[in-house]
């Protein structure tokens, strides 16, 4: 187990380096000069050069990368061109809000997805199964940014039950766990939950269906076990894969909430990202993407290790 | 003396071959009412998009200050008007042009590039495989939405940039599927037999590998079209895809957002189009999967 | 285009394998270092005479199939030399040229046919890419020769045939390259007994008709005896004994060979095997035993057996019968002579 853990860690390293290189290059595939956004239109050539060296843009690319990654490793992601504030601080705040949203969405999505998937797998090829499969495929097909708008139309505009924008009354920004704040969380979390409901349900349905058709389950029934005891065996066999799918979905929720955050003006990483894009604030763009991608890599790692810990079949390979 | 040349010489054989596999696929597909319905809907959407100028619709670009945000069923505008008074029906049908184009082309390109990479990696094995697949792994570290937005955000808005960024998003998953399909075929004895017959790598890939891996890769690629459509429209929705005033569903959804207090159901229409298309693409892909007997 | 010319004359062996070696690395641990080596084939030498059938026998995992694949270049050699009718591979002839003369039939008849090609296309593939004349006509003739009427079978797909029929297709496919040597790697092992007999008869007829030489690899000693002129016995990647089939079947020189044959089911109910002649599984080829690799399972093993590796040497006066056992060599330091010990 320890060897597996260390090997997995070593395997992650090149991926993480690749990710950081990608984020670094992102600024350089951008057309135009990254400084145009902050440079005064009438800046002289000298002023431009001074600015360039201040941001380190006059050095060769590998040197720039080394400097950038060295600073990033110490938590310094540079300064936002638009606001002048450190990128790391802004990203940290935003990621916190995104995580909140992602967790809320998983709390909705995973139990529902598991339940529906299990039901469909158990009653495979019945009307139940067909209905749930239809729900699942609808879930994965719906553009969630549109669904968010529809929910706003229904629950905010028409019914007036829930707020449509922001993460708290008065846009204070400080989150707290009271009813007033949670009301703001409901619509974005539900919207965000729809796709993972579909994905988890589909996966679990296939898993459970396959396990029930395996010989060992038939043997358990033949031994005279009650269905509820057989169920225990089935769950134990389905758990590793189901857990890993859910872990990955949590990662996807964090990175995939960008569009939803835009719809609901949720002050998360996606919101930050779209601001960075429109203000052509490349250090902010770079920093946000780096943090989100590394989070996703870490999530993958945790999921793999957890899966290895509970699934005896994995350790050998 | 290529296989293709001899096949052309003997049409009778080709008929026999087609009968062997594709007629079976077609037969199974035609017995799947859901898949057939979806195929018809997607086809109609594509046809409507292509032939939009000949359908006698209003001018999708013609704005009118006095006819803004008219409801569904307003005389002369069966689906109402948008925030600039432009005809929604015309814009929705014209909108299919860009949305479908930007939504489907990346999968086509990624299918070509990803399959090639995966085939090379899977057939060659060794360090070639390591280099290609480890690079692919890096892209798997990004959730697809994030990757698409990151590249599009850096490149800036525009149709070409959207297609480029979405192509990059979908190359890695297709390459991975292609690699695994190829390396499992590569291990079979008939490949060894073909190598023993003196075939070079290209000939063997063409005659013995492609036919056995393209099916599964193709089915997998079709399952990505729905996501790609949603992402393409999502980029426009964010303002980093298609530029105004072009009619495009994601962009229309964005510009109509402010109208949800005035005329909510008109505002929701472009998203409904995205939803219907993506649902049909998903169901179509499922139908193809079972018709072509491809397992997950 | 006719069959490749016989150039070395009848006394020149068709194929000489010299000290073939192939080791597979096992990688593990933190940095994926090579931590062990599977000695799949470790210094195998033999020759195949023109027109003969050389049987190769041994337990599963002894390196029979690896040897077969090495001979046709499907697996690269780590070391050793292959000489085809006097031409050294890599010096006098290329791999492509070797493969024109040597073909192979695999065990799994289904996996060795492309499911997307008709059997006619499968058989015609080799001749086609090698630019032989009229590949389709040739394929049809061969299909007919192996007992599959072209009009009925040519356009079928592999899944529409039975296992025996598929193996006939594989034989036709190998013959389509006009080889001189055909390696049959467990080619009949997966077939039903009655079908197996038919295919064996077909193989014998084809050998006469086309003047072929076979290397026949099998774990089934009865089948090997039926078809082979000479037999080679392998154990853990090494040759332990080689000789004329009759000598190997009646007059074994190596303890491994004799226990292998003692394990063979007898037709005679009075001649039952009382004790299990060979206990346990072969040792792990990752760390093969020192000295004679068989010493861990040999009932005659003495200290010399684990200390020194016995050489393959001639037994008695018979130039054609060789074995690698210390008991063959009075000077080895082994206290017994095998022939006496066996009696």
UniProtKB/TrEMBL annotation, chain A:
Topology of the protein relative to the lipid bilayer: Multi-pass membrane protein
InterPro entries the record matches: BPD_transp_1_N (IPR045621), MetI-like (IPR000515), MetI-like_sf (IPR035906)
Keyword Transmembrane assigned: yes
Sequence intervals crossing the membrane: 9-30, 99-123, 144-162, 182-204, 242-264, 284-306
Location of the ABC transmembrane type-1 domain: 95-307
Keyword set, alphabetical order: Cell membrane, Membrane, Transmembrane, Transmembrane helix, Transport
Entry annotated with the keyword Transport: yes
Pfam families: BPD_transp_1, BPD_transp_1_N
Subcellular location: Cell membrane
Protein family (similarity comment): Belongs to the binding-protein-dependent transport system permease family.
Identification of the protein by name: Peptide/nickel transport system permease protein
Lineage: Bacteria, Pseudomonadati, Pseudomonadota, Alphaproteobacteria, Hyphomicrobiales
Automatic annotation (TrEMBL), chain B:
Coiled-coil positions: none
Keywords: Cell membrane, Membrane, Transmembrane, Transmembrane helix, Transport
Main location (coarse class): membrane
Organismal lineage: Bacteria, Pseudomonadati, Pseudomonadota, Alphaproteobacteria, Hyphomicrobiales
Topology class, membrane: Multi-pass membrane protein
PANTHER family assigned: OLIGOPEPTIDE TRANSPORT SYSTEM PERMEASE PROTEIN APPC, PEPTIDE ABC TRANSPORTER PERMEASE PROTEIN
Compartment(s): Cell membrane
GO cellular component: plasma membrane
Record-annotated ABC transmembrane type-1 domain positions: 96-285
Protein's UniProt keywords contain Transmembrane: yes
Family note: Belongs to the binding-protein-dependent transport system permease family.
Pfam families per the UniProt record, alphabetical: BPD_transp_1 (PF00528), OppC_N (PF12911)
Species in which this protein is naturally found: Roseibium suaedae
GO biological process, one term: transmembrane transport
Identification of the protein by name: Peptide/nickel transport system permease protein
Membrane-spanning ranges: 34-57, 98-125, 145-171, 217-242, 262-284
From TrEMBL, chain C:
InterPro entries: AAA+_ATPase, ABC_transp_ATP-bind, ABC_transporter-like_ATP-bd, ABC_transporter-like_CS, Oligopep_ABC_C, P-loop_NTPase
Recorded coiled-coil stretches: none
Pfam families: ABC_tran, oligo_HPY
Top-level enzyme category: translocase
Record domain ABC transporter: where: 26-261
Organism listed in the record: Roseibium suaedae
Domain of life of the native organism: Bacteria
Gene3D superfamilies: P-loop containing nucleotide triphosphate hydrolases
UniProt catalytic activity: glutathione(out) + ATP + H2O = glutathione(in) + ADP + phosphate + H(+)
Record-given protein name: Glutathione import ATP-binding protein GsiA
Family, as annotated: Belongs to the ABC transporter superfamily. Glutathione importer (TC 3.A.1.5.11) family.
